[in-house]
Model the fold of this input.
Amino acid sequence: MIFRSGSLLLGALVALAPTSHASNLALDAPFLGYVFDGDSGDIHRIDGLLGSSRLSDAIGLQSSVSRASVSTNQRFAIVQDGDGRSLLVDLTTEPPSVTELGGVMDGADGVLFGPSGQVAAFYSKDQGLLQLVDGLDGSPTVRTESDGLGGLGSISGLALSDSGSLLVATSGDGGGSLYMLPRGARAMRVGSVQDASGLAFLRGEEDAIIADGEANEVILLRGSGPSWHAITIATENDGVNRPYLAGATGDGSYGVVAVPGGVISIPLSGGVARFADCACSPTSLTPLLGNNVFLLTSDLRQPLLAVEIGEEPKVRFIPALPLEGDATF
Done:
């Protein structure tokens, strides 16, 4: 993902058609967030509440967008347009406005957002680079914070904290390791894993949820500085089988991991882990508005699946986009 500077209205890139659903967060109508359609290059708003929601018209991207990442607070999107420019789209204005991001590395693998959506980062595993983006709600600035990713080994998972720390999981023939890269500091090894691909920080914390797919366990990493310690919070006895994605509710009450067939909700203060069957293999654990709602799938031509995490997690569906020629009501 290639993301350069200066502020401009979306103009040729983004225009809202008069009949489209506005992407202004100040609107009274409830909504859950935004989802990117990789087939058409459009961003759609999810209107309504979970259980009675639908996909709105596209917000009106007039230039092809090859990739887009929406912030966890649903206020921003970072997109790559057809000319290879990397742009920060403010979804809270009508029409949406954009800032071209300068100084982003060529060949970035993707974008990470912190749990609160106030900080983002570009990363490249091959180049071993991490670039933080500050000032998302004002004057976004791209800063190169670390060039040490390349020396850690084969990277299997990454997560970004609200303070700009990066948690890295590596894997190898003899098992893997966890590294913490506090902002502006060197990487510190904080523990061992077998093969962890799912990592997620808790909102406002340096604590993190780790899904170890080889060990069939979920770990809560707590602490700071050199005193990190790991707590196993769920195992095979709790139904944890090959977990591969991780998340946490906004209030820090629950960890959540994706496993083949569904998701597992794990109370972090103690209690029984619960499985929610989605009859699917979740492709994401993307936070939506509502503190405890996660999008599980992303194919807009099929009903989207989302889960509400709690003592009894519930999977709900969001109707698919209507096919061309279908009547809408």
Q: What stands out?
A: Confidence is low (pLDDT under 50) at residues 1-27. Residues 24 and 92 are 5 Å apart (CA to CA). The chain has no helices and 28 strands. The two ends are 37 Å apart (CA to CA).
